[in-house]
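Researcher: I'd like a structural prediction for the single chain below. Treat it as a standalone chain; there are no partners to consider.
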Amino acid sequence: MELATAAALPPTATVVALDVADHVLDAARRHVAIHLPRRHARLVFARGSVEDGPEALRAALGGAPDLVWASALVHHLGDQQGTVDTLAGLLPTGGRLALYESGLMPRHLPYELEIGAPGLEARLEAAQGPFYSKVRTETPGAKPLPYGWTEVLHRAGLGLVDTISLVIEHRAPLSADRKKRVLAWLAMRVGNARQVRSLTTEDDAAWTRLLDPHDRAWLGHREDIYRLEARTVHIGTRP
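Model: Treating it as a single chain, here is the predicted structure.
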């Protein structure tokens, strides 16, 4: 995201990419060095966390940011409303906070396959519920959040709250690299469900075969795999 933001802004702007993990920042630096266009905003990498508190965040960001983009961040922290309150507090008048916390989960497979009951991928998505409930329960300081992200932004004192969703589609047949990433995604989701035993015996057996490169049913043999998802961003503005 820091690459796209820097490429979209003029050289007079500054983009600060902030993360708590050094290896993530190092990977971002390498990626940007290869792909960033010649004319772009000044791009700075800084180590920091929202848990450091407002003053430390402002210091890492170099002041009050006109835009804070929080991508798949908030759900990892125990007090999600408190985290958004902190981020919103960094903004000057007219500043914006954009939250990306997924949207509609991706789909990749036909409804019916040669093995397993029809609707296998839909049941895999449903099987993630117990896993993520477990993750939230085990998150230090976890507090319930019984309302949606637009309400979170309103409660953080922001106005002009809006939502934008983008449909992303990669059509079949996928490239070898995209297919590899789809299989890795599905394997991760199956692993999540197995941790909490939320798959039926029949579905578990079907996924074992579909993800096994040595099985004739391996998904890697198929040419009808695709990726279709919706990504949603919620935006609020400091009055």
